[in-house]
TrEMBL record:
Organism this protein belongs to: Rhodocollybia butyracea
Protein name: DUF8212 domain-containing protein
Region (Disordered) residue spans: 154-178
Annotated ranges, domain DUF8212: 116-145
InterPro entries in the record: DUF8212
Ranges of Basic and acidic residues composition bias in the record: 162-173
Amino acid sequence: DVQSDLPRRSLKFAFRQCKWFTRGWTLQELIAPKTVVFFAQDWERIGTKASLQGLITETTGIPLGVLLHNDSSKMSIAKRMSWAARRETTRIEDRVYSLMGIFGVFMSPIYSEGTHAFIRLQEEILKTSNDQTIFAWKEKWPHSDPRGLLATSPDDFEASGEYEHVDRPENRRPHPMTNMGLLVHLPLLR
């Protein structure tokens, strides 16, 4: 949805506003391949992921190292979730399923579970990671209903992009899901 005949400054603005950066599935399409080429509406080449890296980082919040080397697994869970905030898909579940590759997990799709899909994704992530930033989210819209420890949407991580996972021995305990809920050992700071 970008026109190629725009002046350079306007082209940058239009590129930032492009719908492509708000779609759920395009997040993995941006990160996974080594080369991504961007075209305008008239198929005029705008640039590549490498040539537009600064603009893409400003637009998405995705660090250059991730864009150029696909090393997203080194980023905290909260940071990766923040990249998915404000992205949309036609179906609620697709927004979640589009994140599986970014977190290295697999879930069988269930196209009737709605927002529960995001809870299920976090449960799968917890099976393979001890990164406690998964709990560093803030509810985007105030709820009157009681909430659990896990977020209900990637949007809840919108402001969590700066959280880093600190790998300390005391943080290496697993977070298993039990018949009574999630078992978590958290450090107490004074």
